[in-house]
Design a protein that fits this description.
With about 675 residues, the chain is mainly alpha-helical. It contains 26 helices and 4 strands. A 4-stranded antiparallel sheet has the order 1-2-3-4. A hairpin with a 7-residue loop joins strand 2 and strand 3. Helix 2 crosses helix 21 and helix 3 runs parallel beside helix 21. The termini are far apart. About 45% of the residues are buried.
């Protein structure tokens, strides 16, 4: 007998199989037919950017406005978890991890390149050097600031809220629970996770590909490697992905957290090095000026589509729209990771930290590196850095040549890029495995190794074939449908937060106020019973009618004429006291209905319920105030409730200041 060992796996076939087919298919097309694939995907991307750019503009704007609203709203103190939850990580570790996952290699790749490209762009050639420098900083702030982090924040907040508050799986499908309910467990949920897995894989692959090229270029400039070639890129990928796999399988609490802490300390050291040895006074002044410029132009930048400046629109599509698409395409990956590490934070704390702290650091970083590069270009390098603006792989290292200790700074920069590479890759593997397993616990380590292997093989395949640009276009295309998905996240959040707040703030029913322990057995029977229309009708014809009749007689003894009215559609009874000058006093009880939760229908610990609609007697009044369920009132308690409202009515009409409000010949009555 041959014993066959079954491989243990937590992978979800409904998510993994279609995802791998699509991922491998696109990568093979990009590798075998790189020019054709890039041309086709670029055509689609350009069509979207040209004709549907407003979708990105409005989506990102709505994200920012919604998050600012949540900060100041009553929902801000809701905790991402149980009400007594505590954060899993220290504030420093938490910020370090979300920062490393959110920006990573991009900070090193674009910190000098983007400001220099804006500064040297031909569309701004007519402006003065000072204006070009200011605009370069402003646009870089815009692309790496609050708007970028708002995109990540929406996904991260939605995932963390529904995962830790509703105790659903850490999966994008969970964010649709208020809209789809249990359908998230089926094909709809699988479709959402397939989309998230593909988008995450494409985003990480392209970013890691560019990171490998920059590391190779830096090592070549420093003389460590003789050239930038595919052989050396293979070696770099093998070494770094191996380290990433070791970090990933050690878990978030160990490898990812430790590397992220090292990372944030390292970039702070490099930042101080450039700030102190560069044009310090100029950098501090330009940062201060840049913050003010950003704040004063915030709304103009947010809504500006350059429709009145056609000469700027190609630049607008290639930068702002591309960035919004890029951040959106990365948001499933970054959002999942941020959510994973954010349990126990309040919504207000989460939003403020995610929006403000990384944004402020980005501004400092981009000011120090970008403004230093522009200052050196004008005052030292005689335009040499501007000429390298189109070569971002080498630009950072050529920039460092203008500072003392160039070789040490360059090696340190490469070390930071490597750490960024590893932290992006290991957190990416963790996130992809989480999506592919529907956040299953205790996944075997070979799955994490498998994602790392797939990442490295496909990234190298595309690097060798020149298909990385095609995959980047595919990543940007996926951002359009995902921006719509993110808008639906907001709808789900609004619905869920409203229910959440009302659940914890809901007071006892009005009907419980006069309770004593005298009729507790009868009340228990009523509480667990669900009425049909006939039982409510019987309640109105007996308890309500008898209460109103006794009141009518007592009113008559006090010289007050009250009448009892009956109506059929909906069935209701009311006691009314007519006045000539002010509105009539009305207290009525009508038959109303509500839908019962599907969960309650299937609950074994309650009496059987035949359908999901229950009827109940609801009070109403001679004005627009909302009534309430009175089915638990006894006859005397209902009489007491009517008198309570009548006392309120008399008190209001007796006050002179209410005269204009209550004087009317039109008595509002339920129609």
């Amino acid at each position: 007998m041959i014993k066959i060992t079954k491989i243990k796996t937590t992978l979800s076939k409904g998510v993994v199989i279609p995802s791998l087919i699509f991922i491998i298919g696109i990568c093979l097309l990009s590798a075998i037919y790189p020019k054709l694939t890039e041309s086709l995907l670029n055509t689609v991307k350009n069509f979207i950017f040209l004709n549907l750019n407003y979708v990105y503009i409005w989506s990102v704007t709505i994200f920012v406005i919604f998050l600012i609203y949540l900060i100041f709203s009553k929902y801000g103190n809701i905790r991402l978890g149980r009400n007594n939850s505590k954060p899993d990580y220290s504030f420093f570790s938490w910020i370090s991890m979300l920062f490393a996952a959110g920006m990573g290699i991009g900070l090193m790749y674009f910190s000098v390149a983007e400001p220099m490209q804006h500064y040297s762009n031909e569309v701004f050639a007519g402006n003065s050097i000072v204006q070009r420098a200011k605009d370069a900083q402003l646009y870089t702030f815009f692309h790496w600031g609050i708007h970028a982090w708002a995109i990540y924040c929406i996904v991260g907040l939605s995932l963390a809220y529904f995962t830790y508050r509703y105790r659903l799986p850490l999966s994008l499908r969970s964010c649709f629970y208020p809209l789809l309910k249990d359908k998230i467990k089926g094909k709809w949920g699988n479709t959402i996770d397939v989309f998230a897995l593909c988008s995450t894989f494409f985003g990480i692959t392209t970013t890691l590909g560019f990171g490998v090229v920059q590391i190779n270029s830096g090592l070549e400039i420093l003389g460590v490697l003789p050239t930038s070639s595919f052989i050396y890129q293979v070696l770099i990928v093998v070494v770094l992905v191996s380290i990433s796999i070791i970090s990933a399988i050690s878990g978030v609490d160990k490898g990812v957290r430790i590397l992220s802490n090292i990372n944030i300390i390292s970039v702070a050291m490099l930042l101080l090095f450039v700030l102190i040895l560069g044009p310090t006074i100029y950098l501090i002044g330009s940062f201060t000026d840049g913050i003010g410029n950003y704040i004063s132009n915030f709304f103009n930048l947010t809504f500006n589509t350059h429709v009145y400046e056609p000469e700027l629109q190609p630049w607008f599509y290639d930068w702002t729209i591309l960035y919004w698409a890029w951040w959106i395409s990365w948001s499933p990956y970054v959002g999942l990771f941020i959510a994973k590490i954010s349990k126990g934070r309040t919504i207000r704390e989460f939003i403020v930290a995610v929006l403000i702290i990384p944004t402020l650091f980005n501004f400092i970083w981009m000011s120090v590196f970008g403004n230093s590069a522009i200052w050196f270009d004008v005052n030292v390098a005689d335009g040499a850095l501007s000429q390298l603006a189109s070569n971002p792989d080498a630009l950072m290292f050529r920039f460092l040549e203008n500072l003392p200790l160039t070789n040490i700074a360059s090696f340190f920069t490469i070390a930071i890029i490597i750490i960024f590479f590893v932290t992006s890759a290991d957190s990416g593997m963790f996130v992809m495995n989480s999506i592919a397993t529907k956040n299953a616990k205790n996944s075997p380590k070979w799955q994490t190794v498998g994602w790392g292997f797939l990442l490295s093989v496909l990234a190298l395949l595309l690097l060798n074939a020149g298909g990385l640009a095609a995959l980047q276009s595919m990543t940007l295309i996926t951002a359009l449908p995902f921006s719509i998905i993110m808008l639906l996240f907001i709808v789900s959040l609004v619905k869920a937060l409203s229910i959440d707040k009302s659940y914890y703030e809901r007071d006892f029913s009005v009907s419980t106020i006069p309770w004593s322990g005298a009729s507790w057995r009868e009340r228990l029977q009523q509480i667990v019973s669900f009425n049909d229309k006939e039982s409510v009708s019987a309640f109105i014809k007996t308890t309500v009618y008898e209460s109103f009749s006794d009141l009518q007689k007592e009113f008559a003894k006090n010289g007050i004429a009250a009448k009892i009215n009956f109506y059929e559609n909906p069935e209701r009874a009311e006691i009314e006291i007519t006045y000539d000058v002010v509105n009539n006093f009305i207290y009525g009880v009508m038959s109303d209905s509500k839908i019962i939760s599907d969960y309650l229908l299937n609950e074994d610990n309650l009496p059987d319920i035949e359908n999901n609609r229950t009827f109940y007697p609801k009070s109403y009044f001679g004005d627009d105030r909302e009534g309430y369920d009175v089915q638990l009132f006894t006859k005397n308690e209902l009489i007491s409730d009517v008198l309570k409202h009548y006392e309120r009515f008399i008190e209001i009409i007796s006050e002179e200041k209410n005269e204009m409000f209550i004087s009317s010949n039109i008595n509002r009555r339920l129609k």
